[in-house]
Amino acid sequence: MNIVVLNASPRKMGNTSQLCKKVVDGAMDGGADVEYIDLYSYDFKGCMSCFTCHLKKNLKNPLCYWRDDLKEILKTCLEADAIVLGTPIYYGSISSSAQAFLERLLFAADTYLIDEDGNRVSKIKKEVKTAMIYTMNVPKEMDYFNGEDQLAIMRGYLTAIFGECEALYAYDTKQFKQYSAYVNNMFDAEHKIESEKTQFPKDLKKAYELGKRLSGEISKTD
Ligand SMILES: Cc1cc2nc3c(=O)[nH]c(=O)nc-3n(C[C@H](O)[C@H](O)[C@H](O)COP(=O)(O)O)c2cc1C
What 8-state DSSP symbol labels residue 78? Predict the structure, then answer.
């Protein structure tokens, strides 16, 4: 079982990366081979619309042909048994790096073919498990942008083209080490310290379990 875990936050020690690393721990304990990638360490763009992946001669090749730092990473992902992408929420959506990565990954594996049941034909012929991890400042009850619905769009494409896509939402994250140093009256520092102590460990546990589940070691109902 090969699992690729990608952190699409610029902060390499932030909330998203901590959760991603717990997925790695869980997956490794479950016996999987895991590769961890900090996407912000690489220089790449979103889909360049070159359509090389959609040429008839490449129908059987789930590859992105655009040459930049993402090319090799995508090759690894397109051969993996499971792909996990962690992203912070920026203005109600995934980070630009997560968006660029998904455009390239999805289009390389997608086709403009519909089968007799009306479903999209994917170039990926095996079931690939996918998961998205979202971290955000707002507490769940303050989710004013109706995020879980909005974020479901990319998960829908991942499900259609790769396989079932799980979601892990980490709300109410702590953004600053020292809130008093920053311009802010939206977020209460004491509450954030409390949330880091009480809520974040629960999210880390969920991330570990997600990794174990993806490795095949435990089922969703365990
Ligand atoms: C540019 C920017 C925009 C953000 N927009 C939102 C937002 O719309 N909703 C939210 O809940 N948090 C928002 N946040 C907060 C981050 O999503 C949150 O702190 C996240 O856990 C950061 O992850 P990290 O520690 O991995 O960087 C924003 C942060 C930045 C830097």
Answer: H
